[in-house]
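For reproducibility, we list the full input for the adenosine monophosphate complex.
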Amino acid sequence: MLTALDGVYGDRPDALSVAGRVCSYEQLLGAARAVAADVIDTGAPAFAVTATASLETVAAAVGALLAGVPLVPLPPDAGPAERGHILRDSGAVEIDVDFARKGRDPDRQRPPAADRDPALILYTSGTTGPPKGVVLTAAAIAADLDALAEAWQWSAEDTLVHGLPLFHVHGLVLGVLGALRTGSRLVHTGRPTPEAYAAAGGSLYFGVPTVWSRVAAEPRAAAALSGARLLVSGSAALPSPVFRDLEALTGHRPVERYGMTETLITVSGRAGGEVHPGTVGTPLRGIRTRIAAEPGAEIGELQLTGPTLFSGYLGRPEATAAAYTEDGWFRTGDIAAVDEDGVHRIVGRASIDMIKSGGYRIGAGEIENALLDHPRVSEAAVVGVPDADLGQRIVAFVVAEGVTGAELTDFVAAHLSVHKRPREVRFVASLPRNAMGKPQKRLLLTDGSADGSADAAAAGGAAGERR
Ligand code: MLC
Ligand code: AMP
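The corresponding predicted structure, in tokenized form, follows.
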């Protein structure tokens, strides 16, 4: 599965560089074999590591594939509630990785790892409730990486550069396992800053739109990427002005691709092909897509099938079944259009309760529940407000007394991951509700009360607080 570790591309002392530490494939394999043996010896159905941007996290992901036991990467900044939920829900044992250890054989017998074994369980938000575990097999990952290698002409000649978190598909599956399958050198910059991208001297760069927008705002850093072969954007919509700025500063038209934790990457522009701002290209090899549109309409829900799909939400057969149509197509929840050349455009999301901020997927319900756990909060509605840097920023409308916005933001951060903190808390006298008593969130977005303007009174009146 991880071709580079089989020695086909040879080895080099700096095959991987993660947050300033380098290693060879041989060193990585040694550490990963030690992880695999430890994991097999625990007999647990899954194992968890705190997924910092480090060689240890890379060794854990490789160890999972060697052992045939799935890795549950824990967001390093997850608060106790989120961490506890993930560990309980997955039944994973938490292990420490010591990168300096040498490989060993496990004491217990276990059948050899197979492509159909779960390799990763990634926790991701739905519109309501706590995050669900998305089970991904080695076979699905391999199919996706091979399709991407073909689409991007991605090979052992490349040096891949990115600085994305190692607990999601983008940074971990594409950004780590992709390098180990294609044999490209990997430089993980620790954090995805424009300066670090500029200094890395890569041929292939990955980023979420927030990263690209920050690169485009630093012309000198952007110019340093002109020698690259391909810039790829994904995880959220790349704004057209950012596309144009990048082209002007780097000479590259960035390739955009579309995916989900549940499906991996399914649609992409092609290296050497025509790419246009606002479009995400055509389906990857093996993927079929369709638009479930009302009669006469051209846009509708994007649905798809293919070998890269997940094997289900861990322990949630009803949720898994609900994610598919009766005829077996996965419902993405994204609204899309396809032109006569098969080029896809993502128009938006079907649900207002799924927020994308900085490329992170955040369910409004999870944050609302966290806010409602605060004794001073009686009602809460969370929305994603358009934001030039983050795509959307989290804004919480709350009915509460005797508590400040800063206290509520800290309260959320103490329970969930840091990136789930509201950027803005607006106190209102009541939430707009329909006749059934359901909060009318679209009113919160459209009446001016969420844009920081003086119209806050429209949502029930009161002062806003921004951080
Ligand atoms: C953030 N901060 C806050 C805050 N929110 N402070 C107070 N209140 C809040 N509400 C703090 C941060 O902790 C940080 O502090 C500082 O403000 C800057 O925060 P930021 O603006 O969020 O920037 P940054 O931390 O640099 O994050 C931006 C980012 C990050 C782009 C680097 O969002 C990111 O890594 N996104 C990638 C997400 C991703 O990989 N998604 C892929 C999902 S898989 P300090 O002290 O730390 O500076 C997928 C499939 C697919 O989607 O298709 O790819
Ligand atoms: P996640 O599960 O975190 O990977 O988030 C998946 C969601 O990210 C998708 O359902 C889309 O809403 C969004 N997404 C990913 N890539 C793109 C893209 N290129 N353009 C627009 N939205 C995207």
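The radius of gyration is 22 Å. The pocket of malonyl-coenzyme A (ligand 1) is lined by residues 164-165, 168-171, 192, 208, 210-211, 234-235, 259-261, 358-360, 409, 418-419, 421-423, 467 (CB under 6 Å). Both points were considered when choosing residues for closer inspection.
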